[in-house]
């Protein structure tokens, strides 16, 4: 095992395990089908296996003509840094670009572990990467969270052993895979009381909710809180958490069915914003006072309305933009009339070291074991059906969390 950990494994080596992944190809594929090696967190995480690209045949049209593509080279940037748009990025980003393929997985290097994934969390951020709102070098494997069993540990790793149940959230990207290699430093031990699907439903979303209600803005008893997309994966947890902290929670949803879910999650007031104007309703509910904080992951469709709902010195927390971000709606002058505060927190800046990471995770696990947080793992798909999961999430057909399960396991 050990002789691999210095360089890359020889693709021809019989000993190299092969795994299946859902990979974003967009409308170009590598011209020779040698799979690329899955490594993390080296900077060439998912570079193109070969620099010469050709347009994919079939239903996709390329934005650049095929001859423009021949000399496009793989971007060397890491997953965290957005790649500069190049000829590799096209304007066709339907869920069908997720192709199901076999790749090689090597051995974990120094400080790394390999995980056999049991449940993989789907997050709206995966769609941002697939559509190019967030840039990643093509082709890449999406996915920002998974839970599984350690199948190999690299040299120098003492905190984990083969067989341990661990999860991770946020970085490195690449969880839409049967197995993956991650730095041991980002792995979170999963308590035995919490099953794979629950853990994969709640790690990224739950830690995000923790940051939003306990860190970026500290929700307290007596606060009035407005949560958009209250039945979504993060929204559902935000409502439950804010309610447990003693706040009055107002949630907005798009359907009556989701309204029932939001009520169950602790919203004292639910607004079906497709039927009524949420700004008017919030004013009525709060007798014109407004709310202390708005949690908004919808973006431009709700932005101005969210500001209108805030009381003076209120705080607008933006944590996503499912309705789009172009044009970016922020004008500083919009904040002045009520001395508003605007924040755009991201989980990674609140989990900058292992202590912060484990603290955030334990708050989430404690909430689940105490019964304060109910996890709605409402939608389970096979990993090979990742494209269908994306389609349903974008079409607003889902509520709560979405989990992918590798095809080698039973649902």
Automatic annotation (TrEMBL):
Record key words, sorted: NADP, Oxidoreductase
SMART domains: PKS_ER
Domain Enoyl reductase (ER) residues, every copy: 93-404
Domain of life per record: Eukaryota
CDD domains found in the cross-reference section: QOR2
Pfam families: ADH_N (PF08240), ADH_zinc_N (PF00107)
GO molecular function annotation: oxidoreductase activity
InterPro entries documented for this protein: ADH-like_C, ADH-like_N, ER, GroES-like_sf, NAD(P)-bd_dom_sf, QOR-like
Self-association and partners: Homodimer.
Name this protein carries in UniProt: Probable quinone oxidoreductase
Species this protein is from: Urochloa decumbens
Source organism phylogeny: Eukaryota, Viridiplantae, Streptophyta, Embryophyta, Tracheophyta
